[in-house]
Every structure is written in structure tokens, then in C-alpha cells.
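User: Structure please.
Assistant: Input sequence and predicted structure:
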Amino acid sequence: MRTNFERVYVTAHDDVAVLTLNHPEVMNAASLELVDGMGKALSHIEENAAFRAIVITGEGRGFCSGANLSGPGMGSGSRDAGSVLETHFHPLLRRLRDLNIPLVTAVNGAAAGVGMSLALMGDIILAARSAYFLQAFARIGLVPDGGSTWLLPRLIGLARARELSMLAEKLPAEQALQWGLINRVCDDTNLMDDALAMAHRLAQGPASLALIRRLYWQSPENSYEAQINEERQAQRKAGRSRDFFEGVQAFLQKRPAKFTGQ
């Protein structure tokens, strides 16, 4: 079943929701309409308890080619090129960070500018062999946004982050994998099957996956002492879950655990 939103649609695959960016004529460039559509799509997914994992991908031959500079409020005529970040993009990125279910991104083509930032929000990032990543901002006289200057140094180191951002050169999927930027490269024809298989695997995981993803988002800003305290608090929550009880029983009975996400 398909549910349509502005420049976005959601399809249900049992316990996995696939959120597809849907403006292929511009390689899914992120207009304000598309960003708003993503927000509504996420609300739709979060309101359905049957969904236990999300895949984000793009319609057509691109994942997301960056901000749609021809859209309302996005062009060079604005006095404050950063205002739409505060009003539209940042709330969306925070929602992706704070999801209570795992997120897989399936990068099916170009992931440029803020589209690269969206791709890197995945807990697991899969890319088609023909896909590439591009910090395109310097090409038009802007600075990296969408959290790029926070994410990239932590994922690939400061030297490579500077290189990507200042030279604005394409990074092929295979090289992105070698650098540790993404998790896996798939044949183009297998990308969505592989992404769905990964998402279904995560969807069958315990409720603690939400706590795990939160711990890793917190980790870069914390001291060691602060982080082990966060782990202690998260472990208390995980230890009270039905999934922990099921996991222990399955271990003792030497059988696969059947987690319910509770």
C-alpha cells in the first residue's frame, strides 16, 4: 500500500516502512515542499506501531541532489541563505536523529549537498555501486550544512572532511566504503532488496536498538565518564523491557529470540 505526501511517498513492507523521495525530474532535490512532505511521512510512520524500521531512498536515478535552489524561499535572492535551515531542515534532521526505530538509507544515485547529509543519517547506509557523494556547497559559494561539518570529521577524519568540502569532488560509493563513510556497496539492481533485507533484520531486533542509536548520537560530545553514565541509564531501561526477558530465556533455552520491540 502506498501513501502519498508532498514529493514523498511511503510504502509498507510488513514491519518496514519505505520512505521514497519523489521528485525525480530534479533528482529529488530538496525543496521546502519535499522537506515538509518528509515530516508528514515520518509522522505517518511513527503513528503506525506495526513499523519497526525505516528505509529512505530516492525515486528514479538519484537519492537527493541537494537543495532545490529553484524552489520558493531557496534561491540566491534571499538575504539569509541559512534561514530555511533553521525553519525546515534542522527540525527534519533532529527528527531523524531522534527516531525510536532503526533507519536504513539506500543511496540509489547522487547524494549531493544536503542530500548527502540525509543519506548519512542512516544507522546503516547502503549505496548502489553507481552512487556517489558530493559536498557540492563550495561550487555555489556556500558552506556545508545539514550537519555535514559535525558528521564528516567524526566519520572519516578532519583531513578527508576538509578535502570533500573544499574541493567539492565526487566521492564514488566504493571509495566511500573504503573510507568508512558507509556500510555496504550493492549492485544497482540489488540495492532495494538488500536494503529491505537489512531493515527487516533490524525490525526483528529488540527495543534496545532505540537506546543503542541514541547512545551513539550522544557519544561524540561526551567524556568517557559521562558516556558510561549514559550507558548505565540506558541499561536500566533496557533491563526492564520484555525483550530483555525474552532474550535471556532464549539464550538459556538455546533458541533464537523472538523480540517484539517492547
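The mean pLDDT is 95.
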